[in-house]
Amino acid sequence: MKAFTVERGVLAPLFRSNIDTDAILPKQYLKLISKTGFGQYLFDDWRYLPDRVPDPAFILNEARYQGAKFLLAGANFGCGSSREHAVWALDEYGFRAIIAPSFGDIFYSNCFKNGVLPAQVSAADAEALLAATQAAETAETVSIEVNLDTQTIQCGAASYPFTIDSFRKHSLYHGLDDIGQTLQHADAIRAFEARHRQQFPWLFKEQT
């Protein structure tokens, strides 16, 4: 899994509340059997017109937001069904962090399993970041720095804190998914297996 330490890049505002996982990745794409290929379908119903021509009215189709690393959203981002595919789509599209006042619980957990930082900020700070993007000229963007170590978002001269528990912070900082976290204890696991084999040898006898 990709680690997250310090990332710098463009902030794209999609400041709507209650964006659910079906809006992030519509259900018809869940039939794909690979973990890749979802980025092209991110926000599919919003990004494209019925003939699959990019909708120029959708914010992420604006030229200035191509390659954006960060997405600014409203409260309860990622609510709805538990599909992990929604995070896969965001990650493959190129977003390294989602900034919002709150997140759907399962979506929030899925982010950490896939190297995407869900940076939870206060409602006031989310509004301030939105104001910064709105103050930019039409052809300009707002570039920010997201620092996981200090748990801050730097936007110009302003710094905004975000919350994250220490365990998830450690895992994301070091690029550890659930399997990676378990493998940190590989020596202890092997030692236990050896003791268990010695203590209960009959459990390991081959059947004749």
Textual characterization of the structure:
By secondary structure, the protein is α/β, with parallel strands linked by helices. The protein has one domain (6-176): Aconitase, domain 4, CATH 3.20.19. It has helices at 21-24, 44-47, 85-93, 105-113, 123-135, 166-173, 178-183, 186-199, and strands spanning 6-14, 70-73, 97-100, 117-120, 142-147, 152-155, 158-161. It has a seven-stranded mixed β-sheet. The termini are far apart.
Fold-level CATH name: Aconitase, domain 4
Main sheet record: 7 strands, mixed
Radius of gyration: 21 Å
The poorly predicted ranges are: none
Number of domains: 1
CATH architecture: Alpha-Beta Barrel
SSE pattern, N- to C-terminal: EHHEHEHEHEEEHHH
The CATH homologous superfamily name equals Aconitase, domain 4
Which structural class best describes the helix and strand composition? Answer: alpha/beta
* Helical residues, percent: 25-40%
Shape, principal axes of CA atoms: globular
Strand proportion: 15-25%
What do the pLDDT scores average to? 93
